[in-house]
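Design request, tokens follow.
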């Protein structure tokens, strides 16, 4: 009996031990689940925090050196005055071009494989363009044309900056407002030549005109290039603000497009007390949040873009287009010097590279034609820009701006900071990217209006100078009313 009780006690003890083990396992398993859940919650919380900090939250304005030196270090004094300047095409330049033209003409030409421009600039279309350049481009007449407005140079932060300055001749009852016109790539100051006379001439319904300043960006044509790294749109924004200040304008308006849009936008963000209004013909919000909204909008396109959804979606189609047309940007954003050597070695190669951008960005459908859109813009207008880059040897330094832009963290920060400066957007039909007003207002909360044209593409000043100038008048009138209501 004692033995039986002993066995039963042993069994009971064994059962108890098993229960204890099981309970211990349950507790351990529960603790592990709790630990895993806590870690996941922590990681999700950290991810949400990082998302908020890096995408949604508005960062503080970065510290910017307003006197950063971009010139060569030298103790030799420089003439810091504002000096008159003239465009020159000397005979040796023309002779050099003619020799290169003859060399190109003698070589056998590779014909395009298609009847359209899907492989790039079509050989037949370029042959006609080259013939115009070789036999009909009036060098002396174009030099006189380029000098029809007054040109100047002055040192700003160590760089010799070139600009065109046109003052209107009007009665005392007409107000005159300074406006800074900022070009992009592969444009030059010349793009605004048909815009300038409209902006400086009194217009029915308006009691003001403009005093026009058109600088060449640092490293572009007649403006000196830096020999230092880091000269991105933010730093150019400071240089142009200092240029306007040196000319004598503490407050002014801005019109800009292409990469000039980012420079003008940064000026409005950094100097809201000096920039009276910002007019852009490249109306985009370059923030991470805007890009994320665009991607998520592919699930419900009309929620993002309304009845203009076809301008943003389907996203696969847009990404395919951007991938096809962004090769130049990748080259210039990574190895600008390499492609620069190639382009500066041949005026014909330089022209073909630039024409391809005019073709692609004026209207994406132009690649389906043999002309590729080269008949859409004046041949002489395009040749003026080619010539300006060629004779100044500045294409390499101009393209470096892309690499500096992509390498700059400050660019990403400024893209996320809203500007209170009143803004107006001009949308041309075939612009590369479309953002609806509500998306633009995340960056430009004082977006007072937009104008949409049923024609034109990326190069508004060249393609639609009358419409661009008219829209600037309309925008500035709106800006003035904005300030009167405050």
């Amino acid at each position: 009996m004692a033995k039986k009780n002993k066995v039963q006690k042993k069994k009971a003890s064994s059962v108890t031990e098993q229960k204890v083990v099981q309970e211990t396992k349950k507790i351990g398993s529960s603790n592990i689940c709790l630990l895993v859940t806590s870690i996941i919650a922590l990681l999700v919380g950290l991810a949400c925090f990082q998302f908020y900090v890096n995408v949604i939250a508005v960062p503080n304005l970065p510290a910017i050196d307003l006197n950063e030196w971009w010139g060569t270090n030298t103790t030799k004094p420089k003439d810091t005055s504002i000096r008159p300047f003239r465009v020159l095409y000397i005979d040796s330049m023309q002779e050099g071009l003619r020799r290169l033209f003859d060399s190109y003409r003698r070589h056998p030409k590779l014909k395009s494989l298609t009847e359209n421009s899907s492989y790039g600039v079509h050989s037949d279309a370029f042959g006609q363009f080259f013939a115009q350049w070789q036999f009909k481009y009036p060098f002396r007449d174009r030099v006189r044309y380029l000098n029809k407005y007054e040109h100047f140079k002055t040192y700003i932060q160590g760089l010799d900056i070139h600009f065109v300055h046109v003052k209107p001749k009007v009665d005392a009852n007409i107000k005159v407002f300074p406006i800074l016109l900022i070009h992009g790539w592969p444009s030059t100051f010349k793009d605004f030549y048909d815009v300038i006379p409209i902006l400086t001439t009194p217009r029915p319904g308006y009691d003001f005109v403009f005093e026009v300043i058109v600088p060449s960006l640092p490293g572009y044509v007649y403006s000196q290039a830096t020999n230092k790294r880091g000269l991105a749109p933010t730093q150019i924004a400071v240089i142009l603000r200092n240029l306007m200040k040196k000319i004598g304008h503490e407050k002014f308006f801005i019109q800009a497009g292409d990469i000039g849009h980012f420079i003008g936008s940064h000026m409005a963000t950094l100097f809201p007390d000096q920039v009276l209004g910002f007019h852009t013909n490249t109306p985009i919000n370059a923030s991470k949040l805007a890009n994320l909204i665009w991607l998520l909008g592919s699930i419900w396109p009309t929620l993002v873009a309304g009845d203009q959804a076809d301008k943003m979606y389907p996203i696969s189609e847009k990404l395919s287009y951007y991938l096809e047309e962004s090769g130049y940007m990748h080259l210039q954003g990574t190895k600008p010097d390499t492609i620069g050597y190639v382009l500066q070695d041949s005026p014909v190669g330089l022209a073909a590279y630039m024409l391809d951008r005019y073709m692609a960005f004026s209207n994406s459908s132009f690649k389906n034609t043999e002309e590729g859109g080269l008949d859409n813009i004046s041949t002489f207008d395009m040749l003026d820009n080619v010539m300006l880059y060629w004779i100044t040897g500045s294409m390499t330094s101009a393209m470096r701006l892309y690499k500096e832009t992509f390498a700059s963290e400050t660019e990403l920060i400024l893209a996320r900071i809203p500007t209170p400066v009143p803004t107006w957007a001009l949308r041309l039909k075939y612009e590369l990217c479309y953002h609806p007003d509500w998306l633009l207002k995340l960056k430009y909360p004082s977006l007072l209006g937009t104008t949409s044209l049923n024609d034109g593409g990326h190069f508004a000043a060249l393609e639609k100078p009358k419409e661009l100038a008219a829209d600037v008048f309309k925008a500035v009138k709106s800006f003035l009313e904005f300030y009167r209501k405050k």
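Comment from the thread starter after seeing the answer: thanks! The beta strands are 83-85, 150-156, 159-166, 175-182, 208-215, 252-256, 275-280, 423-427, 447-452.
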